[in-house]
Amino acid sequence: MQIRTATAADLPTLAALYRDTVLTKAPQYYTAAQTQAWATVDAESDRFREFILGVTTYVAENTTGMVGFAGLGNDGHVASAYVRHDCLHQGIGSALMQVVLDRAQKKHLQRLYAEASEFSLGLFQKFGFSQYATEVVDHNGVQFTRYLVERIVAETP
Questions:
Q1: What letter would DSSP give residue 140?
Q2: What domains sit in the chain, N to C, each tagged with a CATH number?
């Protein structure tokens, strides 16, 4: 497996990976309406372009193509963490999260934070993130509960 930085050419494939993973995995945790609202993604939209390219997004690839991605903002926001639905529980999410943590340390970020879903919360917890709150958000007209998580990367000198 190789991990590299995403480019604009990756947007259609990443949108499909995102959509397919949500449609496959979300029904175990969310209602049909929530799943459909969450899976609505347009690779051509400014919103998706910003989601992927407005931060540094790392893409994991193997011989089958793109198998996951994770994004990190300059402020320590872990903007995304997705693994292709047919590649879950194979260490891809862990490899991507390790890249995010390594990059955060190189950038001397003191804190990482994210809004985790029901099915990504375990990955964040595995890497030492603690849940400090929950929030209810509206996405495409449907409400979701998200878990606000954080990890202190480096102590203030």
A1: T
A2: 2-152 (3.40.630.30)
